[in-house]
Specification:
Elements (H helix, E strand, L loop, with lengths): L3 E6 L6 H14 L4 E4 L2 E2 L3 E3 L2 E3 L1 H10 L5 H4 L2 E2 L6 H7 L6 H13 L3 E5 L7 E3 L2 E2 H8 L3 E6 L4 H15 L3 E7 L9 H11 L4 E5 L8 H12 L2 H7 L1
Parallel strand pairs: 1-7, 1-10, 2-7, 3-6, 10-11, 11-12
Antiparallel strand pairs: 4-5, 8-9
Helix pairs in contact: 1-2, 1-9, 7-8
Length: 235
């Protein structure tokens, strides 16, 4: 069974946190000790004199972990920009070794670890060190979240091609419906992608309304659409 997943996306705002939370909750409900990380989160808001990483907090609740937020999200920034830019605007720097060290600690105390990146694979974390570099260093297979809309095929194939060039393992890609009413391309994205790549199509997640229990809603949506056992075996 895979040690975990690195959840990346074809873009920002494609639903990585929703899919990652659903996956973490499903694995937790199966009796696994699930570790989670959101190594860098931007666009955080100030609460009680500290930056609150909302995505990291949702991951923590989904996994039911006792990890501290600092171990889940070692770098938090207010400006909603790529990590490199957000850090520079805050007068700080990001040390990839800090992230790698936190990951090793999390992984050592859990059965499986779900790491959510920021944006897509080529988003710079610090200088020329990207999310793809981090995924490679952590040694986790990718779960690619695709916003199922016009343009999805190109974005997905570009992401998968870069993963191939970098030698990154891909557990699969998941199409995610971001709104109740999608565009006309949604019904054909899966069909065309299956014909265009040999990477595993893991399923299409339907739009889910917001609710008080984000993790439970995500688990239902992901559980109904994604072949979890195939992903675990593939990793």
């Amino acid at each position: 069974m895979t040690r975990g997943f690195f959840v990346t996306g074809t873009d920002t705002g494609v639903g990585k946190t929703f899919i990652a939370c659903g996956l973490a909750r499903i694995l937790r409900d199966r009796g696994m000790r699930v570790g989670v990380m959101k190594p860098v989160e931007t666009g955080c808001v100030w609460r009680a004199d500290e930056l609150d990483p909302s995505d990291a907090r949702l991951l923590s609740l989904a996994a039911g972990t006792s990890q501290s937020l600092s171990s889940i999200c070692p770098y938090r920034f207010e400006t909603p920009l790529a990590p490199d830019l957000a850090a520079r605007q805050a007068g700080r720097s990001i040390d990839p070794e800090v992230i790698r060290d936190r990951f090793r600690r999390v992984e050592s105390s859990h059965d499986i670890t779900v790491v959510e990146g920021a944006g897509g694979l080529l988003v710079p974390i610090w200088e020329r060190y990207t999310m793809a570099d981090l995924a490679s260093d952590l040694g986790l297979p990718l779960l690619v979240v695709v916003a199922s809309r016009l343009g999805a095929v190109n974005h997905t194939l570009l992401t998968l091609e870069h993963a191939r060039v970098r030698g990154l393992s891909v557990s699969g890609y998941v199409l995610n419906q971001l709104s109740r009413v999608g565009d006309g391309a949604m019904s054909t994205n899966a069909e065309l992608l299956v014909r265009s790549t040999d990477e595993r199509y893991a399923g299409s997640v339907s739009w889910a309304p917001a609710g008080s229990d984000h993790a439970a809603n995500a688990a239902v949506a992901v559980g109904q659409a994604v072949r979890i056992d195939d992903l675990l075996a593939r990793g």
